[in-house]
Design brief:
By secondary structure, the protein is mainly α. The protein has a domain of 182 residues: MetI-like fold. Helices cover 74% and strands 2% of the residues. The protein is built from 15 helices and 2 strands. It has a two-stranded antiparallel ribbon with strand order 1-2. β1 and β2 form a beta hairpin. α2 crosses α15, α5 runs parallel beside α9 and α11 runs antiparallel to α15.
Length: 316
């Protein structure tokens, strides 16, 4: 081949199919690496999350014997759910825990607004102090508050006695037990909610407030016209987490109230009832039906919150 022929062949365009094949190989290689890195996480989710859900759904259609073993019983567990007074009272108690837990969101919003302002002395200390219950074990929190709520020697009643007030037996009285336990749950989670809302507040551009001040808007008007609309994604996030967390309330009730407390029927949650049926009464099929019903309620409430959030954004 002559030199001119070699130059002509080198300058000739590549076949039309070669770039397409190269792109496909590159995409296959990238997909292979993606699968390689995602496989451990996907396998863990499948083994520890997806498979237990499928297994629980199957067990909800079975009846267990006192010494293990199960037989398929169809919809009998779900029919029993419709006529169980303990389940109805547990759902009512859980709804109260949910409502009282949502009351902590405005408290966290006020704390975030106060502690998000720059230039205040001791802000870091108060932030750490309020966040400390979040990183403390729930059992340790429950044990400490059980001592504080003690009727005879508790710190709360001791302080009330100094001002002439006779405090009740907070976690043994059916009239106060639910509120007492819910207050501890709200106290232990308000720090986490505060941190999220504080991050949302600090992400709002300051020039919005400066423009509002020039227009003569006061702090209240600025809150409803600027802060609340721009903070709605953070508020929606913490509200969803609060609802899901309170629906799963168990450890505080188990440690603070116990199993022989006279106030147990007024404080027992759905998860606590699931624990009793699954591990105390060995009625695992019925407990699985309770767990799946709670899952359905959680998904329904979360979907409702997403729908309300979309309407709020459209209205704003």
């Amino acid at each position: 081949m002559t030199l001119a022929g070699a130059k002509a062949s080198a300058l000739a365009p590549a076949p039309a199919g070669r770039p397409a094949r190269t792109a496909r190989r590159r995409r296959r290689g990238e997909a292979g690496w993606a699968v390689f890195f995602l496989a451990p996480t996907a396998l863990g989710l499948a083994v520890f999350y997806l498979w237990p859900v499928v297994q629980t759904f199957y067990y909800s259609f079975t009846t267990w014997g006192p010494f293990g073993g199960h037989t398929f019983s169809g919809l009998s567990n779900y029919r029993q759910l419709l006529h169980d007074p303990d389940l109805r009272s547990a759902f009512v108690n859980t709804a109260w825990y949910c409502l009282l837990g949502l009351a902590g969101v405005p408290v966290a919003l006020v704390l975030a607004a106060v502690l998000a302002r720059p230039g205040r002395r001791g802000v870091g200390f108060y932030r750490a102090l309020l966040f400390l219950p979040v990183v403390t074990m729930p059992v340790a929190v429950a044990v400490v508050w059980r001592w504080l709520y003690a009727g005879d020697s508790g710190l709360i009643n001791t302080l009330l006695a100094k001002v002439g007030i006779h405090g009740p037996y907070w976690i043994s009285d059916p009239h106060t037990a639910l509120i007492a336990v819910a207050a501890v749950g709200m106290w232990s989670s308000v720090g986490y909610t505060m941190v999220i809302l504080m991050a949302g507040l600090q992400s709002i551009p300051r020039h919005f407030y400066e423009a509002a001040q020039i227009d003569g808007a006061g702090p209240v008007r600025q809150f409803f016209a600027i802060t609340l609309p721009l903070l709605s994604p953070s508020l929606f996030f913490v509200t969803v987490l609060s609802v899901i967390g309170t629906l799963q309330t168990f450890d505080l009730v188990y440690v603070m109230v116990g199993q022989t407390n006279p106030a147990l029927p007024q404080t027992r949650t759905v998860v606590y009832l699931f624990y009793q049926d699954a591990f105390v009464n060995n009625n695992r099929g019925y407990a699985a039906a309770i767990a799946f019903l709670l899952l359905a309620v959680t998904v329904a409430l979360t979907g409702l919150q997403f729908r309300l959030q979309k309407r709020w954004v459209h209205y704003a």
